[in-house]
Amino acid sequence: MKVILKEDVHGLGKAGQIINVKDGYARNYLLPRGLVLIADEKNLKALEYQKKKIEEEAKKKRQDAESVAERLSALELTIKAKAGEDQKLFGSITAKDVAEALQNHGFSIDKRQINILEPIKRLGEHEVEVKLHSNVSAKLKINVVGE
């Protein structure tokens, strides 16, 4: 019997796949638990529609991420921090500090999306990576100035 997986099933496949299983397994286990749909005309058309819709949403999210990446790359962020002698900071600039500064500029970016390669512990210019999408990231210039 051909069925469409509604969700990931260990040993069978991932959601949206069309697979062939034994009739008894489908009727007695998969269907009662709501894990599959019978692969008939109606369900196949609904699956195709769903796939197209998901692809369009993914494309739109990627385009939005690319436009945000362009704006971030053009931005030079200034963060004020307390510093002592020889331009060393008291503490360091974290991803949370960068996210808050971006929030003040109108960006809503989570601190987990910000990748600081090495700790920012000195005044001056630094560069961090902001991961906006699975394939889209932006380099952000940060200028740390003393208070």
From TrEMBL:
One of its GO terms (molecular function) is structural constituent of ribosome. It comes from the Bacteria. Binds to the 23S rRNA. It holds the Pfam family Ribosomal_L9_N. Signal peptide: none annotated. InterPro entries: Ribosomal_bL9, Ribosomal_bL9/RNase_H1_N, Ribosomal_bL9_bac/chp, Ribosomal_bL9_C, Ribosomal_bL9_C_sf, Ribosomal_bL9_N, Ribosomal_bL9_N_sf. This is Large ribosomal subunit protein bL9. Residues 63-145 form the Large ribosomal subunit protein bL9 C-terminal domain. Belongs to the bacterial ribosomal protein bL9 family. HAMAP family: Ribosomal_bL9. Residues 1-47 form the Ribosomal protein L9 domain. Residues 37-75 form a coiled coil. GO terms for cellular component: ribonucleoprotein complex; ribosome. GO terms for biological process: translation. Keywords: Coiled coil, Ribonucleoprotein, Ribosomal protein, RNA-binding, rRNA-binding.
